[in-house]
Batch of 3 targets.
Target 1
Amino acid sequence: KIERYAISTSAGRSHGLFPLGEQMVYFGDSGLKIFENDVIIKEKSIFPINSKMEFYGGYRTQDELLIFSSEKNYLVKENSISNLNTWLGLEEVETKDFVAAFNKKDSLVFIDKWLQNKLTVPLSNVKQSGNAKNKIQENLLQPNEYVIRWDRRGNSIVYLTNNGRVIVYSIHSDSYQPIKNNSTGKILDPTDILIDRNSDIWVTTKSN
């Protein structure tokens, strides 16, 4: 089945289309749109359009969709779009650098783009005052290096940095491992990363 969605091509770049229950959520430079039966039922615009906005990735829980970008971080749930910090009951400065999230036991864990801090939030009460923000113990990234995209398969998360480095995180062991490039050439202008069903890691660049 092929479905069409009314998205203007003059409204900047498109970053993703995500299923959420019976709905589809679009994210682009112009903002967020929730579609149901090919009709927009809710939208949140970004104005002015930022053509240099970085999209880090999205994460879907059972009921929510989290969108991470350099413009803002968002939460989509039950026909509503809100800023992530509002959902968590935090100031925006406390959440603006988050680029990834994953479930661990009964909590949702957020990671910042410097791989320096993580915030653990109990799913039973996301606004609980006991939200735990902790330092990640290792100095994983170089000066001015940060995560631009990530992907997850099973208990492994792969982070791609602006320097073209790949760092694998094991949710099970809570450990990080930089991956050595099996090519003699450095990865330049990286754009995206993927773990396939064989656990092979693929990186795309602007020159692909």
Target 2
Amino acid sequence: AANRMQADGLTVKTEQELVLDGGSVDLKNSDLEIRMLTLCAAQKDRGDCDTPDVGYLAHENRMAGVDNAVSLNNVKIHRPAVDIGYYTTTIFGGKVNIEASDIQEWGITLIDAGTQWNKTYGSQNAYDVTTSSGNVLTVKNSTFTPERPGECHVSFLGNQVVLDGVTLGEKSICLPPINLTIGMRVRQSRSQRTTGLTCGTLRLRRMK
């Protein structure tokens, strides 16, 4: 894909949001201490603000082809030492590959390989992702560590999902809500979640 964003050895420390967008996103050997993170590889990306003409709602709409890929290799994502509230990690592309990485979670983590990604914020929060053949999400030899079990949510979505050597665990007793969705479409609102097809096996290993 054109407009390729590459970073090797990136170090970021901030209590704000970091957004890395491009036709493809390739991040290696990096350490991010960040409040909110968005990694997006897409053909089109548009949105609006919470103004009266859109019903005081904010919208994000993204479209990706299979050549719009997000790749993380040996990346550590962790949160500021001071708890300053809400945290999110959003990763979207036509293909997503995460390898040998460590992601610490204090909020919502959405990792999606799809063709369309739509999200609405405000009084009517909604999340809608469509996938097609070739939208593959691969996670290998990586760890996801939720730090606040009652406030964490981890979601993996793709037309094909490959989890190999993935550890989902935490320092506390309870695991967070975890969604593994393999299908054509997922829609989620405050009151409803629907999928075109849900299947697969998720193996969990408790961290020591």
Target 3
Amino acid sequence: HTMPVVTPPRALALASAVLFLGCAVAPPVEEAREDVPPVHEEEALAAFNAGDYQAAYDRYAALAAAEPARPDLWGAASLAGARAGRPEEALAARRKARALDPRDPWHRLRAARLLLAAGRFEEVLAELEPPADAWDHLTRAQALRRLGRPEDALAALDRAAAVDPALALIPQERGEVFDALGRPSEAATAYAAALGLDASAVHLQMRL
């Protein structure tokens, strides 16, 4: 019940099953010169998996520009852009993916998480209105806490827990809210609950 591991989207995460897509994809027309090598999807995935996120972003962005109707390529470009420290490009690519595939809630959530990381908390609330699942409620709670609205954050966390009581980040965030409210004993109880759900969150032991 943790957040899905951040990996390239379905068409790319299954690269081993679709190696036939390794044929050359022509670059955008305006860049179609003899000195521009063809871009391969497996090369972009290899760069991402190697941690070369800038190169992965450049390759995925080129692929998405060549095939602009594919939301998976825009999503992969967004993911690589975020890892490469290019939040504005990542957000723009994610919104293109969402426009192409509006039924996929992952695009909306990832856009909201990018906004959260950028400190654009009011936009997070707007992006996730109405909230659709536990992750939406949790992300809204995180934005509300940062906006100085701890009681609203706690209410959002209650709604998140009602949907997915096993998501360890919910009591962890509840602990953060109680810390902000100056209620240390309740914060420690919340952190202990998070540890009970996810024993790997050893960093929370320091908060007990």
